[in-house]
Amino acid sequence: PVLVVDFGAQYAQLIARRVREAGVYSEIVPHTASSAEIAARNPVALILSGGPSSVYAEGAPRLDPAVFDLGLPTLGICYGFQVMAQTLGGEVANTGLREYGATDAALTGDGGVLLGGQPADQNVWMSHGDQVAAAPEGFEVLASTSATPVAAFGNDAKCLYGVQWHPEVKHSDHGQQVIENFLHKAAGLAADWNSDSVIAEQVERIRAQVGDARVISALSGGVDSAVSTALVHKAIGDQLIAVFVDHGLLRKGEREQVEQDYVASTGVRLVTVDAADTFLGHLQGVTDPEEKRKIIGREFIRAFEKVQRELVAEAAAEGAPIKFLVQGTLYPDVVESGGGTGTANIKSHHNVGGLPEDLDFELIEPLRTLFKDEVRAIGRELGIPDAIVSRQPFPGPGLGIRIIGEVTRDRLEILREADAIAREELSNAGLDGEIWQCPVVLLADVRSVGVQGDGRTYGHPIVLRPVSSEDAMTADWTRLPYDVLAKISNRITNEVREINRVTLDVTSKPPATIEWE
Ligand code: XMP
């Protein structure tokens, strides 16, 4: 792989994705990795990421200097560029001149291998206080800005390059080309990594891991479990059994989508557990959000364990025991739980709707090295319907946490209808790409007066919560066009009798969360 050395900024994952977009497989390593540890991963090139520190700050992240003796093609970016300059005998200084945001950069000469073929002047995205005042010996200056005399450098003989700006962000005009020039021209790496090659490699790996044992998988209707399950199925066919727990809190058409479209397109052998009665029974009279989440999480595990015991017993009787469980873990989860970066930045994962941790299976995690957009590409390649592959996030506890008040069958039916209308109109308006998700929330314990025909109504309000976000950690409310809102409001109040008022949530996260409960 190309190893992206993470100096603790938020950019390492983005760099790794850009490298893969260039058709070269990449992984992230913490800057604390020693030269021996890095060499042990058989890298074909290194990219040193940006970072939040000054190279002079106390405790500033460093790189084992011996890494530069490995003879690997290396590209330093921003902080990584400065670390490279400093380690190799150049000079890094704090001149008090800072550059943030869009900046004009001018090529020096023809820009060399790294910047060759690009316009003499270009717009690049900067974010730095310190700067490289003098390039190390043997390095040629490739670009400069008005504040930064050495904004890019290169040493062709040693295949070492660096840029002060961030080529991985879209605001840098020719950023992707800088990365591609480094990978393809400087390091001579072929662009041969794509979703086909991932599928072929995983299929082989899964077959080797599983042998003739059987495998179980829990489908949630979400993208990750749908793709990981289909991939395992491609590898081992009917040795895989997928389990889908219908907890009665799904949205309109979701169960059918899994049972019909998904199964038809993948051929996966599916067992659906009809657990709606059990879930609704336990949710009776419960209004507290945390209590609801706990009940739904607990019942999900119970339902899964029950069917799993039956399937295990059945398989054992047939002499083909179930030994493995499929999990749709993605690369950002691996990196964020300390598997990749030095700074263990652990997200508070929502485990509700997850599986128990003590199941007696070995894990198969075929998406462990992949980013979400790559998972979607693989899903499409495997023929999974786009409605599933492009799906917006939906919480494990489902509509149970979108009914404010007690969850009942009637209320679920009302919410399902309203939610289906909102989803349909947002899609018709072409807004799916712009919104991260749009929860529709039923204020079941609130009533408001309305007038319909000649009569007074006393119905429920619903809330539309459209948000835009990168990762759900922060979000802003999406400025939906008024005519789209009007259409949604009209249709919901006309078509869902119990709802006589539609409201819009205009709060960012923080201070509000995306979901209401
Ligand atoms: P909040 O409401 O915390 O939601 O801003 C952030 C993101 O997480 C989703 N979410 C969940 N996903 N199980 C899940 O799988 C859960 O229990 C859960 N709760 C919230 C939410 O839809 C949003 O995308």
From TrEMBL:
Homodimer. Catalyzes the synthesis of GMP from XMP. GO terms for molecular function: ATP binding; GMP synthase activity. Keywords: ATP-binding, Glutamine amidotransferase, GMP biosynthesis, Ligase, Nucleotide-binding, Purine biosynthesis. The keyword Cell division does not apply. It comes from Microbacterium protaetiae. PROSITE patterns: GATASE_TYPE_1 (PS51273), GMPS_ATP_PPASE (PS51553). Residues 193-391 form the GMPS ATP-PPase domain. The active site is at C78 (nucleophile), H166, E168. It catalyses: XMP + L-glutamine + ATP + H2O = GMP + L-glutamate + AMP + diphosphate + 2 H(+). This is GMP synthase [glutamine-hydrolyzing]. Pathway: Purine metabolism; GMP biosynthesis; GMP from XMP (L-Gln route): step 1/1. Its EC number is 6.3.5.2. One of its GO terms (cellular component) is cytosol. It comes from the Bacteria. InterPro entries: Class_I_gatase-like (IPR029062), GATASE (IPR017926), GMP_synth_C (IPR001674), GMP_synth_GATase (IPR004739), GMP_synthase (IPR022955), GMPS_ATP_PPase_dom (IPR025777), Rossmann-like_a/b/a_fold (IPR014729). ATP binds at S220, G221, G222, V223, D224, S225, A226. Pfam families: GATase, GMP_synt_C. PANTHER family: GMP SYNTHASE [GLUTAMINE-HYDROLYZING], GMP SYNTHASE-RELATED.
